[in-house]
Amino acid sequence: MATIEDVAKLAGLSRSTVSRVINHHPYVSEKKKQLVYAAMKQLEYYPNSSAQRLRRQKTDTIAVLVPRLTNPFFPVLIEELDLVAVEHGLQLLICQTQQNEEKELSFLNLLKTKQVDGLIFTAIENDWETIAPYKEWGPIILCNEYKSEATVPIVRLNQVKGSYLGTKHLIESGHTKIAFCGGTESELGIDRKKGFMKAMEEAGLIMSEDWFFPSSYSIDCGKDILKTLFAMKNRPTAVFTGSDEIAAGIIKEAKSLGVSIPDELAVIGFDDQPIAELMEPALTTIQQPVKDMGKKTMEVMVSMLNSDIVNDQDQIYELPIRLVKRQSV
Amino acid sequence: MATIEDVAKLAGLSRSTVSRVINHHPYVSEKKKQLVYAAMKQLEYYPNSSAQRLRRQKTDTIAVLVPRLTNPFFPVLIEELDLVAVEHGLQLLICQTQQNEEKELSFLNLLKTKQVDGLIFTAIENDWETIAPYKEWGPIILCNEYKSEATVPIVRLNQVKGSYLGTKHLIESGHTKIAFCGGTESELGIDRKKGFMKAMEEAGLIMSEDWFFPSSYSIDCGKDILKTLFAMKNRPTAVFTGSDEIAAGIIKEAKSLGVSIPDELAVIGFDDQPIAELMEPALTTIQQPVKDMGKKTMEVMVSMLNSDIVNDQDQIYELPIRLVKRQSV
DNA sequence: GTGAAAGCGCTAACAC
DNA sequence: GTGTTAGCGCTTTCAC
């Protein structure tokens, strides 16, 4: 493997000059530049990235922590993050936490070992208290999920508003008995429940704890919920869900059991994934501007990377969220 | 940022000893080991990964080239690749080619610049001729998509068999007029068409070029195909597709137009993604053992990384493929 | 068991 | 414009 030294020798020049050519510095005569290019080509020379990183003290790589890639929400987000990153000469290191606290922590160490220059959370497993000290090692941003105690920039949606809109739509469609499915572990989940409660209370409705499914997220969860619901004597006529997957599972199982959607049960999803439109009936859902979140997040990251002051800003960027009406309500 | 030198000084030892402790070498006295640990802790020392990589001449990182993360086939594959990689202390660098030849080429340069130790293709944009020279820079494996000229290990399915099984099932269900949708640019696509043709010929059927949709892949493609088909006077009664997405699009559009599936049109998908089971009617499809492919691929990569002989083997690992019967046929 | 020293491949003052 | 030189932080012979 050829090194910069080999190129310098073959070109009859110094390493500095070769380095200058590689890095497109001005003040290199055209003649020598050509000499260098010729030598590089002949030797099949490519700069060693580890050496560059060591010397420059940066990696131009950003870690992106996601729970799982198989949750279709995240690939869309990553795609946009990647797009903006590439524009700025940055690379993404995708890290799947599998919702595991220790794994998340081990990825934070990428910052300490200088494997990445910055880090983006799209979901958070550990307490903020645990994460906070890592700020010292490089810029951190929260995107999508958030913690109100966090002292880093946050790019998020107004989840209270999202679920409020959905629930209100259900109420305006005449429903008074409404179930709620969605996580409440995270602050995002708690806020969604808040929005739900707000809409319920405004309408003078009360929610039944029997119709509350806190730890649901997948298609299979949705199926189970439908079964549970229809085993009850007193059951809701509508259900608010925290994801299109849950909603899809509910609808699927409803069909198997001959339950008519939305006549016997209205269902509302969250995300507006491709699946929402494909379901029969098509899913009424809360649309999240995922791409905009990705774009904004990476822009903030780039600006943090370029400013000397690391994590000086703990601004919150809140993006709009809206209801998409289809046929499941 | 503390360096190994700082730790050595504080512990009153040499850099070598600290290094030995970091790397869990034997032959370090317990006493000094504790001294080192104490110093590391006090200084919040973490080894600089770029320095280690430069010195060790390896990155323990594998590039995985995928077309797009938003195609749900790939996240499943990546998840499994990642699982096995982590077991072996390897990191994955996910690279989206966006089906772009130049992007693919630029990712191949990760090998030359020593940013990764090996590279896995899950789809291929360039000619093999273009890719072959990169073998010299590190182990390369093809997983999923393949080129028969390739001289590297290949982990794949028998795509001829897959589409043969699907088409045969259509024929056995009484269909004689069958459309074919799926890419034919790649060898994988060509093989799928081969399997289709084989089943047709065996049954003494001929395919109509009017019913051949070579460049289809998405939900929207599926919708367009259904519309095109039903604008024809002479139309097929069944359609073989190259992905569950196309099939889902066809079914969705069929419903909008009041076309009954499978009575007026039988549809068969490819992949067996979650969506296949959610569609109404549920999709009959070809199941691919995606996880097994991922596992095998990373195992082969690990063995190549550990053997001194790089890319000596150009073996083909062919995994089984099977038909899943549901309600769309 | 431990330390001294060389060097992985590169960049950036600094001098000329 | 170009070369000399001093590291970036680490691992690994080679002595002892």
TrEMBL record, chains A, B:
Record SMART domains: HTH_LACI (SM00354)
Q: Which SUPFAM superfamilies match?
A: lambda repressor-like DNA-binding domains, Periplasmic binding protein-like I
GO MF annotation terms: DNA-binding transcription factor activity; transcription cis-regulatory region binding
| Keywords for this protein | DNA-binding, Transcription, Transcription regulation
Q: Where is the HTH lacI-type domain?
A: 2-56
| The protein, known as | Transcriptional regulator
